[in-house]
Amino acid sequence: MRRNRAEQREFNRRALLASARHLIATQGTNVSVDAIAEAAGLTTGAVYSIFGSKRDLILAVIEEGVHEYLEDIERLRESEEALPGLLDLYARRVAAGLDGDFREEARFEVLLVLLCLDDEFFREQSLRLQHRQRDALAGLFTGRAVSDGPSPRRVSSSEAALIASSLLALTSGFLLRGVLDDQVRRDTMARACAALAHLVDDGTAAH
User: Name one Pfam family in it (predicted).
Assistant: First the structure.
């Protein structure tokens, strides 16, 4: 079925995002606009028409990844798991999303960090987006039962913020470590994430 103008523009936008992410991960952030457009089967004019600049295209790639991440967080809200089970579930979903392109995803993350070191604009924007991820995770954990049982204590907002920050750091570390060590297992990451539940007192011990 033939696409209308709006549908074609969205199709082109997504094609450019996909090609940009792949080429940045495999060739670096200095990849040319021409190469990105060619990989998407489009002209360079489409890049500037849709995104305005290469910088805005790269930012859109980053924002697209965060948007997908936030959608996954929203789906996790449906779970009735207590904190340890929810952390395990989160880690396994993160791991499942890496199947097939583990090294490419890790390379993209490394290049993004390097880009942030050299470019204040991307550092500020990446920090803003990271805060959105942290806040979404904190919202997911706030009020969650600390353990299974008839009257469990609930996670406070400050505890949820601590767990969220720790979780983001932990999963990023596993991602980067997996580039160097093929023996790093996804179930190990899930177990390590679930262990973050111990950052919260379950109420059985004195504070």
Answer: TetR_N
